[in-house]
Amino acid sequence: MSEAAGNHIYGAAVIGCGGMGIQHVRAVAQHPRTHLVAVVDREEEVRQRCQQEHDAQEAYAEYTDILNRDDIELVVVATWPSSHREIVEALLRAGKHVLCEKPLAPNLEEARSMIDTVHQTGRKLRIGYILHYNQAYNKVTEMIRDGALGEPPYIMRLLGGEHPITELQWSRELKLIQETSAGIDCGCHYVDIMRRVTGADAVWVSGIGARTEPETPPDNFDYELFSVKFTDGSAGIYEVGWTHHYRSFNEKEFVGPKGRIRLSYAGGRRDGYSEEGDQIEYYQYPGSITIINVPTGLKRVDEELADLILTVEEDRDVRPHLDDAYKSLEIVLAGHQAAVEGRTIWLQ
User: Is the distance from CB of 45 to CB of 52 less than 8 angstroms?
Assistant: First the structure.
C-alpha cells in the first residue's frame, strides 16, 4: 500500500437508508477516510432526512443515478435481498467497490452470479457479516481454537428472538420474512460462526418452522429452527422467532469434551452488570467458572467499512470471504427448504 493510498479520501455512497442502512450512513459520514457523496433511497422523506442529518452532497431516488459518478468509489448496499444482485452487479461493472448487507442473495444462482461478476470486473465485494468484528465472538472463537473445549465434536446452541414493540418494527420484520425468512436473514450470521468455530463444513441440515402471525405468508414462517451436522462430528442448532408474542432474547452456548462457553450480550447479563459489556462464562467440570468481560458492540459497521478500504488498498483476495458467505447462505437456504418440505437435506 502506497503512502498516497493510505491518505486517500474515498467518495462513498449508501443505497438504502432505513434499518441497517442508517448505521452505514453514520459510519461513512464519520469515517476519516470516506466522504459521503450521496445517499440513495426511494422514500423521499428518508433520503432527505439522511442528506440533511449527515451532510451528504446529494440524495437520489434511484441507484442508477450514481453509476456514472467518478467521485464515488465505494458503495454500501443496504437494500432488500431481492435487489442485491441487480444493484451490486451494476455497481461492480461501473467500477465501484461494494459492501453489501447480508444475506448475499435470495438464492444460490444469484449469489454465484454476483461472485462471478467480482472475478470478471476485478472490483472488491465484501458482505456485511458484522459478527466478524464483534470482540465477544472473536474471543470465543479464539478460546475454542486454543483448546478451551478440547477437541471436537462440539455442541453449538445459537438461539434468539425478537419482540417487535412498534408497528414500524413489525412491518420491517414482516418485509424480511416476505423477502427471505427469519431463519435465513439472521441465520447466515450464526451458521457462519459455527463454521468459524469448528473449521468444518456442513454435512446435512434439517429444519422446522411455524407461523403464528396472520400476516406471515402461507408458504413461509415467523419461527424457524435449523439443526446442522458438520464433518468433524459437531452439531449445531440455530433458532429464531419474530412475532408479536415471542420474547426478545439471545442465548449462545458452545459445549465440548473439556468445558462450556456461554456468551451473554450486555443487555441480557444475568448478573446485571451491563456496563461491563458482553460476558463470556467459561465453565469446566466440576465447578470452575471464569468470567471474561468483553466490550460490547454488535453493529460494528465502521470496522466493516475500514476493512473494505484495506481490502481495496492492499488488493486483498476476496475469494475466501465470498466463499464463506456463499457456504453459510447455502446452509440456511437448505435449512429453510428442509423446514418447508419436512425433510433433511444433505449438502455433501
Answer: no
- DSSP SS3 for 164: coil
Give the residue among 35, 31, 38 at the shortest CA–CA distance from 14: 38
Grid cell, residue 333, equals 437456504
Query: In this structure, what is the dihedral angle of CA atoms 59, 82, 22, 29, given to the nearest 10 degrees?
Result: -60
Cα separation, 153 vs 308, whole angstroms: 34
Q: How does pLDDT run across 107-143, given as a tens digit for each residue? A: 999 999 999 999 999 999 999 999 999 999 999 999 9
Q: What is the largest CA-CA distance in the chain?
A: 64
Residue count (the chain):
348
Residues 148-200: pLDDT tens digits?
999 999 999 999 999 999 998 999 999 999 999 999 999 999 999 999 999 99
**Hey, where are the domains in the chain?**
3-128, 132-299+331-346
User: 3-128 architecture in CATH?
Assistant: 3-Layer(aba) Sandwich (3.40)
Cα-based distances in Å from 211 to 168, 181, 241, 244: 20, 11, 9, 12
Above 90 in pLDDT, residue 12?
yes
Q: Do domains 3-128 and 132-299+331-346 have the same CATH topology?
A: no
Please give the CATH topology (third level) of the domain spanning 132-299+331-346: Dihydrodipicolinate Reductase; domain 2 (3.30.360)
pLDDT score at 93: 98
Cell of 118: 467480482
